[in-house]
Design brief:
homodimer, 2 domains, about 20% strand
Chain lengths: ~425, ~425
Amino acid sequence: MYEEVLIKSQSVKKASGVLYNCTTAKKNSLLKAINLYLRSETPAILAANRIDLDCAEKTGLSKVMLDRLTLNEKRIQQMMQGVRDVVKLADPVGKVFNKVKPPNGLIVEKMRVPLGTVGIIYEARPNVTVDASVLCLKSGNAVLLRGGSEAIHTNKILVDVIKMALKDLKLPVGCVEFIETTDRAAVMEMLKQNRYLDVIIPRGSQQLISFIQENSVVPVIAHGEGNCHIYIDSSADLLKAEEIVFNAKTQRPSVCNAAEKLLVHEKIATRFLPRIAARLQLAGVEIRGDERTLSIIRNAKPVDESDWKKEYLDLIIAVKVVKNLNDAIEHINQYGSHHSDAIVTGSKANGEKFLREVDSAAVFVNASTRFTDGYEFGLGAEIGISTQKLHARGPMGLTELTSTKFIVHGKGQVRK
Amino acid sequence: MYEEVLIKSQSVKKASGVLYNCTTAKKNSLLKAINLYLRSETPAILAANRIDLDCAEKTGLSKVMLDRLTLNEKRIQQMMQGVRDVVKLADPVGKVFNKVKPPNGLIVEKMRVPLGTVGIIYEARPNVTVDASVLCLKSGNAVLLRGGSEAIHTNKILVDVIKMALKDLKLPVGCVEFIETTDRAAVMEMLKQNRYLDVIIPRGSQQLISFIQENSVVPVIAHGEGNCHIYIDSSADLLKAEEIVFNAKTQRPSVCNAAEKLLVHEKIATRFLPRIAARLQLAGVEIRGDERTLSIIRNAKPVDESDWKKEYLDLIIAVKVVKNLNDAIEHINQYGSHHSDAIVTGSKANGEKFLREVDSAAVFVNASTRFTDGYEFGLGAEIGISTQKLHARGPMGLTELTSTKFIVHGKGQVRK
């Protein structure tokens, strides 16, 4: 029944050997060809998307999900702009670095190489089909895609478009494969293909990601929760602090790098808290405070111990008054999710201490946690954000889709 | 029953927070203190080792295993030299690199940080207890050890020695914990501790490593088989080629970086093969050849298709005559284990092509595959060799025991 998964896993593995040695010029030509077909096939893509949307409306998909599923002229234009951006990115493959000359007379270096094959498991957004494929292809990786059932018709035609471009460039069409079986057992089967897949990157809900992490024999690079903190130090510029907290909480509360917790130094709590609380509450944010916070501001609910570990993804923020920087760091390392945390401070020493001691994928001095993002961090593009410590941590760009090998030049040396 | 595993996993996790911010000076003082106790406790260590050896002799452990288990004055001296070598190594933790200034005005950099907690699962050699602990501690990681039952008394006293040093330095003794339960179910329990362990590094037989890879929820960095190739190009200096093949096959045939396969360009096969075959056979090496090889040399057995994928770890080599460099690369990528492969050539272009196109952890031009090793590659020390593509590939030193985080300096920036 799940032969499809096995056959397509073998297909990407076989194709990956060709991509491994593909020149940058050829990979860029491939991306440009994909864009040509995205343009010429736009009517067909929109028609396929219409079928998915009709099904989704009948099954009563939520408005948010329908919006994620929807393609239109503008969104296809954005997709094409994304592809053009990736064409411009430097190719990490083939880069040689870390030259060492040990006493044995060898010259030992590292060379950056593709990972080989990447599995992407994602949900409703069909743009991931193109975005993720293009990043994998540019970094020399073949890719096995498994998208959500809601977007099946859209995804299939987008993969067809990519395969047309692969054919034109005389590259194996197996460089990009798409699993058409839509039940979860097909995902389960994909998680067993460690002979053919080098890594799986899940994109979607925490529920999907946890399921994949727990069941995969293939290594997974996963994006965990974002229980992000902002700590306002006693020396902070309180106007800046207010802007940063307001931005990090309200600019897009549903995303992983939105702030969920506010820690305030006790010396400035009575000056800072009433101001930021009023502004947040005016924007509809619910404030949950510890005892000291409640003694300073009105209309706040008491915080629960379980709040400190929660990722709300909503207009809610929990607030705690802390004694000092050490207390703030300790709280963040204990209760945080090690995603993104920020300090607002006027003290260079305190800023550096925070950056060093907070154990998170991204740590900020005097900036909003909302900046944790591949584009904002100058990576050019993003295949996802890792909250793991192995291989990749934080926003992942092309380099994170590569591995290395040791290359060694000798003059006939043998081991003694 | 396996509460020990849970409690000790929690203990290393807790201790790792202290090690995360430990200065290089303090970590070096710790290593020096370990060495002082290794010296002062040598009689007690040897007495404990005597108990293990007595048990092992009674249960009829093989000579090779007994040798691996044995400590003596000289081996403890070597252990101490190993610790001194690690003291001298540069501390990777805290290093800041990859500075980027994206258009948003932020300064984005990466900082190297400890992984956190490392699980080491190993077999008879008690020196791993000290070697692995010291590498983990120097890179700021707490470590949970699980050694073989044969070495239990030796391992326990070595861990006591490390804990004495931790106490002296006022560091948590939980920085190094040792699982005393010796059955395999305790290993199974350790593989579930993904809440507390960041990575598991198995050291030992392929059987042990496969078991761990298949069953671990904790990410594993594993060392697979070494089916290593040497390809002799038509332009090779045949004297050098002979030395390299002889060294890679015979110098230590039981290890992963020993050569198992010899590929020879057809143009030089009749000149090269009789010479190397005679020398190898004189050293007791069994030669298994393809048809063309058998037509050139005597006393060779015919090779079986299954031979091409085998890691012999013995005085056996399989030989194939190939048409050209492309055939050699294709054969290696198809049948090899992606560990270590070498070309002997007089052509710079062919050497570079081989380095680029062979997809292995270490690729060599004009040198023996036996050099795949942390010390020989200038890493200073080695916690193991990875044949994976994620996180670390090839010999792993201190840097491979670290992760990174993004550190971001702003001036009050918020996301638009």
